[in-house]
Design a protein that fits this description.
Elements: H1 11-16, E1 51-52, E2 67-73, E3 83-90, E4 93-101, E5 106-111, E6 117-122, E7 144-145, E8 151-156, E9 160-165, E10 179-180, E11 188-189, E12 195-199, E13 202-211, E14 222-227, E15 233-237, E16 269-271, E17 276-280, E18 296-299, E19 312-314, H2 319-324, E20 335-337, E21 348-351, E22 357-362, E23 380-383, E24 395-398, E25 404-410, E26 413-421, E27 427-435, E28 443-445, E29 448-453, E30 456-460, E31 467-471, E32 484-486, E33 489-493, E34 498-503, E35 511-514, H3 519-530, E36 538-542, H4 547-559, E37 563-566, H5 573-582, E38 587-590, H6 598-604, E39 612-615, H7 620-631, E40 639-643, H8 648-658, E41 665-668, H9 675-684, E42 689-692, H10 700-706, E43 714-717, H11 722-730, E44 738-743, H12 748-759, E45 764-767, H13 774-783, E46 787-791, H14 799-806
Signal peptide: 1-23
Protein name: Putative cell wall-binding protein
Domain Pyrrolo-quinoline quinone repeat: 425-504
């Protein structure tokens, strides 16, 4: 029996592996999820909820198996989380890329699977020194990726935001870019992450500045809003807000007041309910007109306010005291949260600060008094459950029951609070649990809460605070670093300059989805999941029709190679990348020139040092016979016969045929044995014949006709439908091991899966897009697989089916 080499990957991960070796041995890496997601900015979106609900590979059942994927040394520490963009076209192929900004002004693009540096740039610190002293300027900002995925934006220590092509690092330099965000970079630090919001037909980028620790120098907090289409800017100053310019050190564009920094982890937080952007300010003067220290402010998405001030504001009644005692409200930003069921207030946010309090605010009327300039008016004020000031960003998550949760970490620990309702639907925060392990900004992915603590990276059950997993990495020099989880990978950096990635080994996953962006990407991903480099052969067939690939699946599996799908006139990029990785010793094309053109056949020669041959007949039945003649010797113990007019039965039969040396898989019509097949059967003289499929697929008359080609038995394997037939075929496989599943309603995903399953001596069972058929469930119960490989994206087989399949894994 061949050992099954299953490494769960997606099409973009396949591409990434062309330029760098896996960080661990085969079977230890599980790069990307089926439906690839971007983590394009701090908190995974403009509202910075800190949630990735699309994560499927890392969850409560698998998080305990997280293992190191790679560790790389950055050019200095990054005091902020990275961002990630999947499927970026680079000179080395299509890759998932990870971007991080270091304190010294570097932006580094890394291969998200291997950690290899793809490109990097640095702006600063150069001659920039904090407040004109001897300490170099630095930033704690995070980059942001625009919605197209084509550009990434990063702050440089020259006081500007720079725009780079994600795949090449080429910088845009024109009349707008790079964009100025401060004229005083030695006094005004960019502490927060960049934020991007798309609303009202515009996409805006927000950059915020404050001062350096110590509150020295001539600095004022401000938010710079940049329209990414036009490059136009609007500046909102938190002091002297009537002036909408970047302040210079001298009049007429100077402000006599200082401080009121914007320095929380995100620059702004978009509230989709009110279509405002919210942010908070640090210590500074407040007059409710032009100066807005220790306040929560709301602006229009284009960065404008009203009457020389914000659109709305909230300021605590004890603002003066907080200012005097250095208890900034602006140490954390307002976090938009989902209201609890039955809430009388539709738009909510939580705001904490250095005063160890949490306030619940109505974002549609921040002070409850209509418009900006008032003090007080919060819906609720409670002490931080674990005590202590908050300098991190809360996260908001809604669990499966609809309960809205808020998670807050700080130097005293971490807490989980529920949003509930009281009399008249009044919303309120209620503490559910606390943990004493201090840490930074939390996130939730796949139903697991992650945060970096002073003892290392931790994963908790978000509903109870129970620890599910931990590692000692990630604690060195911890400040404002925080993790992200995307596409089956956990990333985090620390103060040592190390950036680490963790993933769940394939062997630890109950159900791993293998998929690409389309049928060709899925074909490449399936190949990469099962076959290593330098395979003896790769079979190539049309991805637009099924017959040729059906005939070749068993032959490919027995020979130790994949079936890869192409277009009639082109080799899709994902297949090109996979062929480069495979470096097959030879290539066999299945089907005639209408299926795969001679031009494609010629191009395939560039991917092998051996031959490229074509196996084809006059039609699908002729091709089936030719494949058999080329790969099956006479007197095989069995010949398998399936319908050439429909695909489901043949998909399941492919792995079964692959288990028997020399056993062909031959196509017939529902009512006849085509002449080419009859001739081939006469040559083979098989010891027995097995028909796969019911009488609607292959009649009893055909079964009778087949008896003339063997001296042994002619039997039928069939179920009540295509799903039942796949279950009946799977009954021939032993218990345990790996099982493959794919859609039984469409053929492309399963074409490549049949060869991979056959190579691993695993059955291929068919399912619907929305449920596991009872016959298939029964067979999976018997098999008790240790792992299920689910082939195809969520359009083909839903996440609900993936969840259901996990219940059959032993």
């Amino acid at each position: 029996m061949r050992a099954s080499r299953i490494v769960l990957v997606s099409a973009v991960a396949v591409a990434a592996l062309t330029s760098a070796a896996l960080a661990g041995p085969p079977g230890t890496v599980a790069p990307a999820s089926a439906a690839e997601q971007a983590w394009s900015q701090f908190g995974n979106g403009p509202s910075h909820f800190g949630v990735n609900s699309a994560e499927t590979e890392i969850g409560p059942s698998t998080v305990g198996a997280l293992a190191p994927l790679f560790t790389v040394s950055l050019p200095g520490a990054a005091d902020s989380p990275p961002v990630e963009q999947p499927a970026v076209v680079t000179a080395g192929g299509t890759r998932d890329l990870l971007f991080t900004t270091t304190k010294a002004g570097w932006i580094v693009a890394l291969d998200a699977v291997t950690g290899a540096t793809v490109w990097s740039h640095q702006y600063g610190p150069g001659s920039c020194r904090i407040n004109g002293g001897s300490t170099p300027c630095y930033t704690t900002s995070s980059p942001a990726i625009d919605p197209s995925g084509a550009f990434v934006y990063s702050y440089g220590l020259d006081g500007k935001v720079h725009k780079y092509a994600t795949g090449t690092g080429a910088e845009t330099v024109d009349s707008s870019w790079p964009e100025v965000t401060t004229l005083k970079p030695s006094d005004e630090k960019m502490s927060p992450a960049l934020t991007i919001v798309t609303t009202g037909g515009h996409t805006y980028l927000y950059a915020a500045n404050g001062g350096y620790p110590g509150d020295n120098g001539d600095y004022q907090g401000h938010v710079t809003t940049i329209d990414l289409a036009s490059g136009a800017q609007h500046v909102f100053n938190t002091l002297c807000s009537q002036l909408t310019v970047h302040f210079a050190p001298a009049p007429p564009t100077a402000c006599g007041s200082v401080q009121s920094a914007v320095w929380a982890r995100p620059s702004v937080v978009w509230d989709p309910g009110t279509n405002h952007v919210l942010f908070s300010t640090g210590n500074g003067s407040f007059d409710g007109s032009r100066n807005w220290g220790d306040s929560v402010l709301a602006l229009n998405p284009d960065g404008t306010g009203t009457g020389g001030g914000p659109v709305d504001s909230w300021t605590p009644t004890n603002q003066s005291q907080l200012n005097q005692q250095d208890l900034d409200i602006g140490s954390t930003a307002p976090q938009v949260v989902t209201p609890p069921a039955g809430s009388s207030v539709a738009h909510l946010a939580v705001q904490s600060g250095k005063d160890s309090m949490i306030r619940l605010l109505n974002t549609a009327n921040l002070s409850g008094q209509g418009g900006p300039g008032h003090q007080g008016g919060q819906l609720q004020s409670i002490a931080v459950p674990q005590g202590g000031e908050v300098l991190t960003q809360p996260a908001n998550w809604v669990d499966g029951s609809g309960t809205s949760w808020v998670f807050i970490a700080n130097g005293n620990g971490i807490s989980g609070l529920k949003l509930t309702t009281g009399a008249g639907g009044a919303p309120a925060l209620t503490t559910a649990w606390t943990q004493s392990a201090a840490g930074t900004t939390p996130i939730i992915a796949g139903g697991v809460l992650f945060y970096q603590s002073t003892s290392g990276i931790r994963a908790l059950d978000p509903t109870s605070g129970t620890q599910l997993w931990s590692a000692s990495a990630g604690a060195s020099g911890l400040h404002w670093q925080s993790p992200i989880v995307v596409n089956g990978r956990l990333y985090f950096s620390d103060g040592s300059g190390a950036l680490r990635a963790y993933s769940v080994p394939a062997s630890a996953q109950k159900v791993g989805r293998i998929a690409g962006a389309d049928r060709f990407g899925t074909s490449a991903a399936v190949s990469a999941s099962a076959f290593g480099p330098n395979v003896p052969v790769a079979y190539v067939a049309s991805g637009l029709d099924f017959p040729d690939a059906l005939s070749g699946a068993a032959a490919a599996a027995r020979a130790g190679g994949p079936v890869l799908l192409v277009q009639p006139g082109a080799i899709p990029p994902a297949i090109q990348t996979e062929l480069t990785r495979l470096s097959p010793q030879k290539i066999v094309v299945l089907g005639g020139t209408n299926a795969v053109s001679d031009a494609v056949l010629a191009q395939l020669g560039g991917y092998t040092s051996g031959t490229v041959t074509r196996l084809s007949g006059a039609d699908r039945f002729g091709t089936s016979a030719v494949v058999s003649q080329a790969t099956s010797s006479t007197s095989p113990p069995v010949a398998y016969v399936v319908s050439g007019q429909s695909f489901p039965d043949a998909l399941s039969a492919g792995p079964l045929a692959a288990r028997t040396a020399g056993a062909p898989l031959l196509l017939v019509t529902s009512g006849t044995v085509p002449a080419a097949i009859g001739t081939e059967l006469a040559r083979l003289t098989p010891a027995s014949i097995v028909v796969v499929g019911g009488t609607d697929a292959i009649s009893d008359g055909v079964l009778t006709a087949l008896k003339s080609y063997t001296s042994g038995s002619v039997t039928r394997i069939a179920g009540g439908d295509r799903f039942g037939t796949s279950a009946a075929v799977a009954a021939a496989f032993p218990t345990g091991g790996v099982a493959y599943t794919a859609s039984g309603l469409a053929f492309p995903d399963a074409l490549s899966a049949a060869a991979a399953a056959g190579f691993g001596s695993a059955p291929l069972l068919l399912t619907t897009s929305g449920g596991v058929p009872s016959s298939v469930g029964g067979q999976l119960t018997r098999i008790g697989p240790t792992h299920i490989a689910l082939v195809g994206g969520t359009d083909a087989v839903s996440d609900d089916v993936q969840t259901a399949l996990a219940t059959y894994v032993k």
